[in-house]
Amino acid sequence: MKKFLDLGLQPLANSYIKKRNLQLKEKKFKLTIGFNPKNYLVSILNTVPKEKMFNNNYPYKSSESKTMQKSFRDLSHKIKKSFNPKFILEIGSNDGAFIKNFNRNHIVGVEPCKNLASITKKINYKTYAEYWSLNLAKKITKKKKADLIYSANTLSHIKNFNGIFKGITGALSEKGILILEDPSLLECLKKVAYDQFYCEHIYVFSTIALKKVLDKFKLEIFDIENTKTHGGSNRYFIKRQSNKYYKVKNKVKKEIIKELNFGLNKFSTYKNFALKVKKSKEKLVNIFKESKNKNFKIIGYGATAKSCTVLNYCGIGREYIDYFYDTTSFKINKYLPGSKIKIKKYKKLKKSEAQLVFLGAWNFREEIFKKEKLFIKKGGKFITHVPYPKVI
Ligand code: TYD
After folding, report:
1. I need a surface site. Which of 153, 190, 199, 313 has the fewest CB within 10 A?
2. Does 306 or 57 have the greater pLDDT score?
3. Residue 229 confidence (pLDDT)
């Protein structure tokens, strides 16, 4: 692994702080990112034990976003039409935003965060509140193998691929399809979205890196879709190499060429990215300083894990941002890790309340701008750092 980026000391991005714990010292870890020239994997270099991140207190719920709900609904239509699976398995089923689109007799979820697993159990979807492993795969598919396995924004959170893919190949039927969906490294680099890197995102994948991982397990990508979720993701359609039923589409080759042309196989590309990240920080800090000099009141929108990386890396705290608005009930009245900025229950933006709003959830920009039409019409402005820091 060759290190190319140092984002400093960071707290656990999803460890929102309760008021009574504000005085306690937070645990921090070094957030550095590296590139492996042999297998093209890009990953954070110091990882945090999974039990510290994925437990009974996991705050993120997919169903709270309309964008995510729509994305899962559209995909479920496509799956039914194209593959007509009889038995589906979802790894990382969160609060059920995907599985709810299917008949409960045909799908099971795996979700180690017990607070989330209990939500889908309550509505009678079979859910295993465990970490995905070969043993669990054997247990679930003892009688019947899965025709389709889906996993979104989960693989990037798991350090050791061996157990994962052994479980997947063990659970998948011979003609079964695996669909993986994760943020795209190409989009991350193009958008200088360095906030895709935080304790939970151990990997940000490129197609060229994933291809090498899959090769080891005799799996191959036969189709690929670029999606808009999470700031630009790739949805990979994968089969066994022995399965000749699906042809590898030209799109896969095109995506690989796109990535090679951008230089995702070269260390120099990542060094260059690191320089852009440094500049992005300087510019963002300047925008905040200038806005405060003009006495603008600034609040934040969407207390994301991504914001945690940005605020802590740039040293932006309560002196700039009065509070954040967020819709997630679990986060409300807590404080952002590191910067300790308060999170309040979302209210529609009003220009009389704040003139500038830092877009923490920039990945939902379209959804948010639609919602805040009136604020924008009245001249309210947003600060974003993606693809470069500016006021919009
Ligand atoms: P998410 O996209 O999961 O980002 P991360 O993985 O970096 O945490 O989180 C989006 C957050 O933004 C979530 O807490 C909900 C919040 N949010 C709002 O408050 N209002 C909105 O309109 C939207 C779309 C999201």
Report:
1. 190
2. 306
3. 92
**pLDDT tens digits for 187-206?**
999 999 999 999 889 999 99
Ligand 1 and 346: CB distance under 6 A: yes
Domain residue limits at 370: 2-36+268-391
Number of domains forming the structure of the chain: 2
- Ligand 1 pocket test target in 64, 113, 359 with most atoms within 8 Å of CB: 64
* Closest approach atom of ligand 1 to CA 360: 12
327 lines ligand 1 (CB under 6 A): yes
CA dist 234 and 228 (Å) reads: 9
Supply the residue whose CA is at minimum distance from atom 22 of ligand 1: 368
Pairing of strands 107-110, 233-240: unpaired
Give yes or no for residue 304 CB within 6 A of ligand 1.
Answer: yes
pLDDT tens track for 122-164:
999 999 999 999 999 999 999 999 999 999 999 999 988 889 9
Q: Are residues 197 and 287 located together in one domain of the fold?
A: no
- Domain's final residue, options 218, 240, 264: 264
C-beta 62 within 6 A of ligand 1: no
**Nearest-CA residue for atom 9 of ligand 1:** 304
Q: What pLDDT, in 10s, does the model give residues 58-114? A: 777 888 888 889 999 999 999 999 999 999 999 999 999 999 999 999 999 999 999
User: Is the predicted pLDDT of residue 48 greater than 90, yes or no?
Assistant: no
**Cis amide leading into 59 (omega within 30):** no
Pocket test for ligand 1, best of 299, 328, 370 (most atoms within 8 A of CB): 328
| Shared-domain flag, residues 112 and 135 | yes
Instruction: Judge if 179 and 74 occupy the same domain.
Output: yes
Question: How far away, in angstroms, is 303 Cα from ligand 1 center?
Answer: 7
> Do 192 and 387 touch, CB atoms closer than 8 A?
yes
What is d(CA 335, CA 19) in angstroms, rounded to the nearest whole number?
Answer: 7
User: 343 and 254: one domain?
Assistant: no
Say whether both 21 and 73 belong to one domain: no
Domain end, chosen from 230, 264, 298, is at: 264
My answer on whether 177 and 98 are in the same domain is: yes
Question: With bands split at pLDDT 50, 70 and 90, how would you rate the model's confidence at 387?
Answer: very high
Same domain, 308 and 334: yes
Decide if 366 contacts 309 (C-beta within 8 A). Answer: no
Radius of gyration of the CA atoms of the chain, in A: 21
Separation between Cα atoms, residue 90 and residue 222, nearest integer Å: 20
What is d(CA 129, CA 343) in angstroms, rounded to the nearest whole number? Answer: 29
For residue 76, what is the domain's CATH number?
A: 3.40.50.150
